[in-house]
Amino acid sequence: MADVKYKRILLKLSGEALSGERGYGIDPETVNNIAAEIKEVYELGVEIAIVVGGGNLWRGEAGAKLGMERAQADYVGMLGTTMNALALQDALESHDVPTRVQTAIEMRQVAEPYVRRKAVRHLEKGRVVIFGAGTGSPYFSTDTTAALRAAEINAEAILMAKNGVDGVYSDDPRKNPDATMFEKLTHKDIIAKGLKVMDSTASTLSMDNDINLVIFNMNTSGNIKRVVLGENIGTTVEVD
Ligand code: UDP
Predict the structure, then answer these.
(1) 78 CA from centroid of ligand 1 (Å)
(2) Which residues lie across from 185 on neighbouring strands?
(3) Is residue 2 part of a domain?
(4) Helix 70-94 / helix 28-42 crossing angle, nearest 10 deg
(5) Would you list which residues are annotated within the binding site?
(6) What's 133's DSSP letter?
């Protein structure tokens, strides 16, 4: 095995990462590029679990604002994350990376149901595991799913791949030119400084379970591999 910083990772991809230039929906070419990057990491011998979001298709909160019942709108969102999971599985398999999709809401014809021990076994056997349908419960996010699954499978870090953002900044870098990026933070810093890294449920779950995070820009190709190899990119949130 190559000299890597993390042997088991949980990669969190936002739904938007799959939509490419279009900004919505699933762009197969973009998904294919992401799969190629994941393959590079896979070839290092790293165990990879992935939580994929659904914001490129639907967000429950937005649906609720338009008059839908919130829980129902969230179920639509969870099904969206599963569509993304299946698209990613397709791209990874076209790169000869063995994968399994496990969903928190059963849909046996297209994916396995989520079973923690099975997920760990797949990882040990060298399969990339993609978790679909979030936590299976409304009112949660896929960031919270990432924190939960990372804790369950004992991932050494959550790699939070961001679209066009290099890491965690003191302020919104698109609005404030004086905003500076943090290289290292602790979970307590995030709360004390009021930084927005994840939603608060995901943030406290990560803190309470001592989960390391790396927030980095997905738009620079090769970045997932750089993080795994321990290069100093993005912002690392470590346990103090
Ligand atoms: N969702 C949910 N429970 C979960 C995870 C996700 O209800 O455990 C729903 C929620 O409606 C959310 C949508 O799925 O808006 C898509 O997930 P998210 O917004 O986290 O996607 P991302 O922003 O990462 O693309």
Answers:
(1) 6
(2) 237
(3) no
(4) 60
(5) 12-15, 54-55, 59, 74, 135-142, 163, 169, 172
(6) S
**Would you list which residues are annotated within the binding site for ATP?**
12-15, 55, 59, 163, 169, 172
In a domain, 3, yes or no: no
Q: What is the mean pLDDT of each run of 10 residues along the chain (240 residues)?
A: 92 95 94 98 98 97 97 98 98 98 98 98 98 98 98 98 92 90 94 89 94 95 96 92
Whether pTM exceeds 0.85: yes
CB 63 within 8 A of CB 54: no
* Distance from Cα 6 to the centre of ligand 1, integer Å: 26
Q: Which of 142, 149, 196, 215 to mutate to test the pocket of ligand 1 (most atoms within 8 A of CB)?
A: 142
- Across the chain, the runs of DSSP E, i.e. the strands, are 8-13, 47-52, 99-103, 112-113, 128-132, 157-162, 168-169, 181-182, 184-186, 212-217, 235-238
**How many domains does the structure of the chain reveal?**
1
User: Residue type at 145?
Assistant: T
Mutation probe of ligand 1 site: the residue of 78, 88, 149, 215 with most atoms within 8 A of C-beta: 78
**Residue 24: both structure tokens together:** 């919505």
Q: Is residue 110 part of a domain?
A: yes
Domain of 194 in residue numbering reads as 8-238
CATH number at residue 79: 3.40.1160.10
Q: Please report whether residue 1 resides in a domain.
A: no
